Amino acid sequence: MIPEDLERQILLAKAEGAVPFLVNATCGTTVLGAFDPLEAIADVCQRHGLWLHVDAAWGGSVLLSRTHRHLLEGIHRADSVAWNPHKLLGAGLQCSALLLRDTSNLLKRCHGSQASYLFQQDKFYDVALDTGDKVVQCGRRVDCLKLWLMWKAQGDQGLELRVDRAFTLARYLVEEVKKREGFELIMEPEFLNVCFWFVPLSLRGQQGSPDYDQRLAKVAPILKERMVKAGSMMIGYQPHGGQANFFRVIVANPALTRADLDFLLDELQRLGSDL
Ligand SMILES: *Cc1c(COP(=O)(O)O)cnc(C)c1O
After folding, report:
1. C-beta of residue 181 within 8 angstroms of C-beta of residue 175
2. Counting atoms of ligand 1 from 1, which one is nearest the CA of 56?
3. Integer Cα distance of 39 and 28 in angstroms
4. Ligand 1, atom 4: nearest CA belongs to which residue?
5. Which residues pair with 56 in a beta bridge?
């Protein structure tokens, strides 16, 4: 998101009589892993009195790394943040947090059902601590326990190491993709999403020919079918932003090694050698 464009959109919407309320910025987009410039976006929100929500489902865990947390600079200015520890940190599915800067008991005012037989108010402690009447559901799992236990077991340092190791491995994969013939990076990644095409022999050097994109788009689905049938790998692919189907490897599993990433590229070459 480009802050100047955002401001233009807000002014346009207001001129047309709309009442903008919320801006959704993203830390770590799902496909390319891009981070929005939060400080500049927060400035725009402040100027126009808008709620700033940050979707940090994927990228929020980077805050645990002293080396990489600069990617989220400005996140402290958000009104709300969504964060999925079940992604980069590897907490068991599912474990998602919604963090709110709120002093007005907003969630309770929105969702509280004030059932007299639930969530008694005359307890011996501060009932503001109870989460029961702040959410839509009633019965639900204690998903935060998985994060708490993992954090206790790993410590700040252990979780930081997970994040830092993932960045190092993703960088390794990027360098290998650049080195190998037939692999083409979509863009320099900011995060752990390594996006690339495998360009088979029959298509190499043919960029610019009229049906190149159409033919390239067929490669990833064929390779996916072959890897699934061989039982060797699972890699996601998709078209995006006008680009033909490309592979998206998310380097996040703490058990991954360089040898796994070498295997991944070798295997794509092997499976695609006759295309
Ligand atoms: C995964 C993801 C989501 C979806 O999160 P759920 O908790 O599965 O709904 C939203 N935004 C981004 C950027 C994501 O990567």
Report:
1. no
2. 13
3. 16
4. 57
5. 83
* pTM as predicted: 0.93
**3-state SS, residue 23:** strand
pLDDT digits 0-9 by tens, 82-98 = 999 999 999 999 999 99
User: Tokens for 153?
Assistant: 């077991």
Q: 193 CB less than 6 Å from ligand 1?
A: no
Q: 220 CA to middle of ligand 1, Å?
A: 24
Q: Using the atom order of ligand 1, give the atom closest to the CA of residue 94.
A: 7
Q: For residue 74, report the distance from its CA to the centre of ligand 1, in Å.
A: 20
Amino acid code (one letter) for 150: M
Question: Taking a C-beta distance cutoff of 8 angstroms, is the pair 247, 222 a contact?
Answer: no
Distance CA 47, CA 23 (A): 12
> Distances from the Cα of 10 to the Cαs of 17, 48, 224, in angstroms?
11, 8, 42
Ligand 1 within 6 A of CB of 65: no
Close Cβ partners of 254 (under 8 Å, ≥ 6 residues apart):
90, 162, 165, 166
DSSP 72: G
Determine how many CB atoms are found less than 10 A away from the CB of residue 122: 5
Residue range 4-50, pLDDT digits in tens:
999 999 999 999 999 999 999 999 999 999 999 999 999 999 999 99
List phi, psi (to 5°) of 198.
-100, 120
Residue nearest to atom 5 of ligand 1 (CA): 57
- Among the listed residues 237, 208, 213, the one whose alpha carbon sits nearest the alpha carbon of residue 225: 237
